[in-house]
Specification:
about 350 residues; alpha/beta; TIM Barrel; 4-stranded parallel β-sheet; 17 helices; about 15% strand; binds 2'-deoxyinosine; binds zinc ion; EC 3.5.4.4; Ado/ade_deaminase
């Protein structure tokens, strides 16, 4: 699969992940078990077949249809034990893939179909991440997992979710996000929540510039004050490549000048139609222009992917080597929502020492 780098070495190398959805990363076998417990009807009950179903169903070229597949994961995440289980497995799966730092997001408002309160939902997930991280560390694969709470952009609970995030900030919630269908639901609908978070000195990212273009990115940054862009891939619409050198428009220049991190998710973008293929993905141009590019999984289940696989796809498509993989990893770590000294410690004590021998080879 990979020309100049072995896949198992990518798995071993430390990686940092900023954009991964908890409800987009369940193990198919877990979905089958949990669905049987609650009587939820699945499109397939054989785990392998179910895994293939998710990838195929999400492969539609439309974000709206991609999002429909989440009905089957959200349906089995409605009790504290189920939430705890999927969070534990998420931490373990990421750690086994060599991810040393991850920010995992989910929307608490989607897990209230039974009798849980918003706070109970968050507590169950945090307990699962703590459990999975402890097990991973014991197995020699330490990982730090930070939680982001997402509000759904078509709904009207963002202020409540923002307050929920701040309430749990000292227990592992490190940021806030909005997600869901982008077209027709601009981020400015949630301005109150973003202004509240700013007054609380809290961090947030916004899904913007995925299914909808520059106006969404502009609002996310200049109206809402987003620290990072979830995807943000459409920023290329503000870069002209017609002449001998690329020319940046004012918004693209602002994003680059301010070092605003782009949480790029290559496979997910191909599935939703935001990019035509991996090889044509704007990540190549954005990296060449030295935007603050990070590589992410988005939804491991729907894309049949992992952090190592996303890196390997880029190695293949763009002929990247360890220097680029290290750059993506350090970019992500610099852009994390945990405190500066903790970010630096992971860069200096985990990432740099591990990449040093790889760069020498
Ligand atoms: O790539 C995405 N764009 C917009 N919304 C998304 C994406 N991936 C997942 N979501 C939605 C579906 C999930 O149920 C929700 C919370 O994780 O976030
Ligand atoms: Zn996403």
């Amino acid at each position: 699969m990979v020309a100049n780098i072995r896949y198992e070495d990518i798995v071993k190398a430390p990686k940092a992940l900023l954009h991964d959805h908890l409800d987009g990363g369940l193990r198919p076998a877990t979905i089958v078990e949990l669905a049987a417990e609650v009587g939820h009807q699945l499109p397939a009950t054989d785990p392998e077949e179910l895994g293939r179903w998710f990838v195929a169903a999400a492969d539609s070229g439309s974000l709206e249809r991609y999002l429909e597949t989440f009905a089957h994961t959200v349906a089995v995440m409605q009790t504290a034990p189920a939430l705890r289980r999927v969070a534990r497995e998420c931490a373990l799966d990421l750690a086994l893939d060599g991810v040393v730092y991850a920010e995992v997001r989910f929307a608490p408002e989607q897990h209230l179909e039974r009798d849980l309160t918003l706070d109970e939902v968050v507590e169950a997930v945090l307990a699962g991440f703590a459990e999975g991280s402890a097990e991973a560390a014991a197995a020699g694969k330490p990982i730090r997992v930070g939680t982001l709470l997402t509000a759904m952009r078509h709904a009207a609970r963002s202020q409540e979710i923002a307050e929920l995030a701040v309430r749990h900030r000292d227990a592992g919630v490190v940021g806030f996000d909005i997600a869901g269908a982008e077209a027709g639901f601009p981020p400015t609908r949630h301005l109150d929540a973003f202004e509240y978070l700013q007054r609380e000195n809290f961090h947030f990212t916004i899904h913007a510039g995925e299914a909808f273009g520059l106006p969404s990115i502009w609002q996310a940054i200049q109206w809402c004050g987003a620290d990072r862009l979830g995807h943000g891939v459409r920023i290329v619409d503000d870069i002209s490549t017609e002449g001998p050198d690329p020319v940046l428009g004012r918004l693209a220049a602002y994003v680059r000048d301010k070092r605003i991190p782009l949480e790029l998710c290559p496979s997910s973008n191909v599935q939703t139609g935001a990019a035509p293929s991996i090889i044509e993905h704007p990540i190549g141009l954005l990296r060449d222009l030295r935007f603050r590019v990070t590589v992410n999984t988005d939804n491991r289940l729907m894309s049949g992917t992992s952090m190592s696989r996303e890196m390997a796809l880029l190695v293949d498509a763009f002929d990247y080597g360890w220097a680029e993989l290290r750059w993506f990893t350090i970019n992500a770590m610099k852009s994390a929502f945990i405190p500066f000294d903790e970010r630096l410690k992971i860069i200096d004590e985990v990432i740099k020492p591990a990449y040093e021998p790889l760069l020498r080879d």
